[in-house]
Structures are given as C-alpha cells and as structure tokens.
Design a protein that fits this description.
- With about 280 residues, this protein is α/β, with parallel strands linked by helices.
- The protein has a single domain, classed as Rossmann fold (3-Layer(aba) Sandwich).
- It is about 40% helix and about 20% strand.
- It contains eleven helices and eight strands.
- The protein has an eight-stranded mixed beta sheet with strand order 1-2-4-3-5-6-7-8, sandwiched between helices.
- Helix 10 links the parallel strand 7 and strand 8.
- About 50% of the residues are buried.
Length: about 280
C-alpha cells in the first residue's frame, strides 16, 4: 500500500465515525503548526480521561496529524477525550523546536481543562513510530521536572525508542541522523536527552505495542527497550500481534483493538490500584 492509499484509508475510517462531541482546532502557540484537534464533552459534563495523540513519520514534514484521526474517533466513541497534536518538524525548524512543541502541547492540557471536562489524573500519552519517541521523551521530562500533568500511562505504537540504535541501523533512511543534526557521536547530549532508552526508568507505566510484520530492526529495538524498561523498574506491558507498521493505528486491526482495550482498562480500572498488570 502506498502513502496515498494509506492516508485515504485512514481518512475514510475517521470519516465513517458518527460525531459524538464537537471537534475544536485549538492553538497552543502562535506558529501555524502549533495546534491540535480537541474532542471532548461540553462544559458541565463529568470529567473524562484524555489521550494525547502524537503522530509519527520519522520527524519529517510530509506526515501530519491526520494519521491519528481514526484513533481519535475510536477513543471518542468510548467516552475518552483526545488531543491530537501537530508540531513543527525537525527538518524545517530543528530538533529542539520540535521537542519543545510537543512539551508545550501536553502542558496546554492544563489550560484546556478550564474549557472542557478533562480528567488530568488520567492522561495517556500515545505516540506512533517517531511520535512514540516524542511522547516517551515528553513523559520523561514531565516526571523529571515535576510538571503537570503527569501522565498515567504512555503508549508506544511501533515506536522509535532507541535513537542511537536507530541511527546505527539507518532506520528510515538516515532519519535519526537528519533529524537530530548528526550522528550519536556528533550530538551525544541531544541523543541522551531524547532517546527513551537513555532516559530509563521513566517512572510512568508503559504499553509497548509491536506489529509482527513491521521492520525487523525496529522490532528488535522495540523489544529490547521493553525489556530494559522492566529491568530499570518501570511497569511495562508488551503487546505483539499481526500486521505492519500502520496496523497499530488502524482501529479495525486486531493489534490496535488490543491496544485500545488495554489502555482503556488501565485508565478506567487499574490506575485505581496504582499499577499496570500483565494481561
């Protein structure tokens, strides 16, 4: 399936959902790409959990937040608010601007909770591919600084979780080297701050979702990350199932359905007990 067919399929999937809540385009900064789509109940309703969706695309500008719209619609149907964010891309604005945007978008939930009934005790950061790296790094920053909101769960869908390994294995045709402005030897501090593997333990429960037919190198790094996170003391559940790289963001797929069910189970029940249990 080429890019056009993939996007057409995900857009059609998103368009097929009935509208339950209004969709608001909200800026979290003054620059064009500093915005997100918020799906949430009207003011006065009971507060609901919120999932922050961070799209991937190897940090390149041709991929946009529409990749995550079908997932956003699926969560909406299950009474979970979503904040599907866009951000500046490293290739045009630099790595630091991109990571700052994701941090600012997550921090904007505090302001958004003043306009919509969002339960900031039950925030999930969910990222796909390179977006998983951005989501995990944002979670690590929030925990390290004690800033709010502290995520209850982080979900890595086919994530690029080891930046040094991604650069050495040339994932995405040099995507890490291009986005971070050099190799790990040339930019050691930037890699160390940004690679989820280097930030362990994150101090946040994690759901790590790997598609069997994805890039073998990406899968190797993803599995190794999950093992390292457990060894470092983080609570981690791993899900593996059929499909390729984009099956994990297609609500119609088996593996995506399992991810959604586990994430919802955690924020609705398991968080009360303070732990993420293996299914």
């Amino acid at each position: 399936m080429d890019e056009a067919d993939l996007l057409a399929g995900l857009r059609a999937r998103a368009a097929s959902y009935p509208t339950r809540w209004p969709v608001r385009r909200v800026g979290y900064g003054p620059i064009e790409d500093q915005f997100g789509y918020l799906r949430a109940p009207a003011p006065g309703a009971a507060a609901v959990p919120v999932v922050v969706l961070v799209h991937g695309g190897y940090w390149r500008a041709r991929w946009r937040l529409d990749l995550m719209e079908a997932l956003a619609c699926e969560f909406e149907q299950r009474s979970v608010a979503t904040w599907n964010i866009e951000y500046r891309r490293a290739e045009d604005f630099g790595w630091d601007a991109m990571t700052a945007d994701v941090g600012a978008a997550v921090a904007a939930l505090v302001r958004l909770a003043g306009t919509a009934p969002l339960d900031l005790e039950r925030v999930v950061l969910l990222g796909h591919s390179a977006g998983a790296q951005l989501a995990l790094r944002a979670a690590a920053d929030l925990v390290a600084t004690g800033m709010w909101p502290r995520p209850a769960l982080v979900v890595s869908l086919a994530g690029v979780v080891d930046l040094v390994g991604a650069q050495l294995r040339d994932l995405g045709n040099g995507a890490a080297r291009a986005a971070l402005g050099g190799t790990a030897q040339q930019q050691p501090d930037r890699y160390a701050r940004s690679s989820p593997l280097a930030r362990l333990p994150l101090g946040v429960p994690q759901l790590v979702v790997t598609a069997d037919a994805d890039d073998p190198d990406l899968n190797d790094l993803h599995r190794a990350y999950a093992a390292a996170a457990r060894a470092a003391g983080d609570e981690v559940v791993s899900i593996e199932g059929p499909g390729g790289h984009f099956a994990v963001i297609d609500p119609a797929s088996e593996i995506c359905g399992r991810c959604i069910s586990d994430a919802l189970g955690f924020i609705s029940h398991r968080s009360v007990r303070g732990g993420l249990e293996q299914p």
